[in-house]
Amino acid sequence: MGQMSTPLKVPENHSRSPEMQVARLEMILEISRSLNSMLDLDTLLQSIMEVAIQLTDTEAASVLLLDKKTGELYFEAATGDRGSEIERIPVPLEGSIAGWIAQNGEVLVIDNAQEDDRHFGGVDKRTNFVTRNILGVPLKVKEKIIGVLEVVNKRYNVGFTGDDIDILDTLAAQAAVAVENARLFRQSDELANVVHELRSPMVSIVGYSQLMLMKPDMPPQQIRSGLESINREASRLAQMVNDFLDLSRMETGRIHMEKEEVKLQALAEEAIEQLYPQANAKEITLSLNVSGRIPLLQGDNNRLKQVILNLVDNAIKYNWPGGSVDVMLSCNTVRALLFVRNTGPGIAPDDLDLVFDKFYRGEASEYDVQGTGLGLAIAKKIVEAHGGDIWVESEVGVGCNFTFSLPLNSGEN
After folding, report:
1. Confidence (pLDDT) at 114
2. Cβ–Cβ under 8 Å, residues 180 and 68
């Protein structure tokens, strides 16, 4: 099949009254003011797509953005039921309609998508959605392409008009600025979280060291106490920095997972032993229960141990003094499962979907909980990199049950 269409210009016979042009411009200005007042990226993208559908009288819309670090184009948002299905699906720059628009920085109209070689049919198959025709425009900020706005399937089986092209191109120019502002705001907000978390141990380190320098005749026991505090806070600071770097590398695909034999039970035993002093300090009982024989897995021992440590550490932190943390291992015919259950305050139903978000910090009742809010986000990335799944169940006032599953191989320990 050959390419059936090329970038279109407004037809020569296209005409509009001056009054209509002024009305549309006023509408776009009002939309622009509304969009630029939104700093939440998800809300902004939904608004952009809704407006695009209304202005062009189409069935669906989507926004694809270029990743600043990798240069990859991916679906950031889409309307309707297909939205959750295609979110974050990468789209090749070569051989796709959106890729062509992003690379050339031009408007593109596809009258028959099914007969165009550039149509990325994988999305239709995944969502059971039939794409008939497409109008796509680049999202530009100061001549720099940041993504693509597409509307799909003009209603009433008619083609896209010059009006549609003009209005969507104008909307895209305003939307691109709003998207860039929202992304910058998100980055600054995350940076503020990072700085806030790093500030506490840094203040402690500076405070203890200044005190020791100001009092050279400090008794040996006080000096030792101060050095122990500095070491503790420095270790905490180092762990925070490692967490930030780990998550950043995982999000950008710059972290390597080893492929080696993994004994999940041995990793669980090591994690429990390592965290026993922390649990003992709160008089929390740690236990490991293994149901049957757990076959060998293929994966990264250090990273999977990190997952278990993060889950057990979280279960201890968000627990009542005198409570319990139970780690359980089992397997079925295709997967190994590890459960970490605690007897703590639990998680509110509205927060369950947020637990694995970076910087999320749950309520810890009256108990002070320190950390970056990255442990569970990192655990999720590692498990998913191994082809596994991770989820949480909770009952407020009773506790939580975190579970992850990993695919088996044929080996046994």
Report:
1. 86
2. no
In angstroms, what CA-CA distances link 50 with 43, 79, 106, 136?
11, 8, 22, 15
Under 8 Å CB-to-CB from 304, ≥6 apart: which residues? 262, 264, 267, 297, 382, 386, 406
Looking at the DSSP assignment, which residues form a beta bridge with residue 261?
A: 298
**Which candidate, 296, 219, 303, 217, places its Cα nearest to that of 263?**
296
* pTM of the entire predicted model: 0.54
Sign (positive/negative) of CA torsion 354, 359, 365, 371?
positive
8 Å CB contact between 324 and 342: yes
Helix (H, G, I), strand (E, B) or coil at 157: helix
- For residue 33, give the nearest of 141, 181, 185, 143 by alpha carbon: 181
User: Contact 80/222 with Cβ under 8 angstroms?
Assistant: no
- Percentages of the chain per state (helix, strand, coil), in multiples of 5: 50, 20, 30
Half-sphere exposure of 158 (CA within 13 A, CB side): 9
Q: Which of the residues in the chain have pLDDT under 70?
A: 1-25, 69, 80-88, 121-127, 187-193, 196, 252, 361-372, 409-413
- Residue 345: CB atoms within 10 A of its CB come to 21
In what helix (H) or strand (E) does residue 311 lie, and over which residues does it extend?
Answer: helix 301-317
Residue with tokens 């776009």: 28
Q: What angle do CA 230, 364, 355 make, to 5 degrees?
A: 100
Distance between CA atoms of residues 276 and 317, nearest Å = 12
Question: Helices (DSSP H) in 15-161: which residue ranges?
Answer: 18-36, 41-56, 82-86, 97-104, 121-127
Could you list the beta-strand ranges (E) of 300-379. 324-331, 335-342
Contacts of 21 (CB under 8 A, 6+ apart): none
Long-range CB pairs of 82-89, under 8 A, 24+ apart, other chains included? 82/123, 82/127, 82/129, 85/126, 85/127, 86/62, 86/123, 86/126, 86/127, 89/122, 89/123, 89/126
Strand order in the sheet with 324-331: 285-290, 324-331, 335-342, 399-407, 389-395
Packing angle of the helix pair 375-385, 301-317 (nearest 10 deg): 150
Token reading at 34:
């509304």
Rounded Cα gap, residues 243 and 92, in angstroms: 31
The CA-atom distances, in angstroms, between 18 and each of 15, 25, 39, 161, 317 are: 9, 11, 34, 18, 66
- Three-class SS of residue 210? helix
Q: With 0-12 CB in 10 A as exposed, 13-18 as middle and 19+ as buried, what is 116?
A: buried
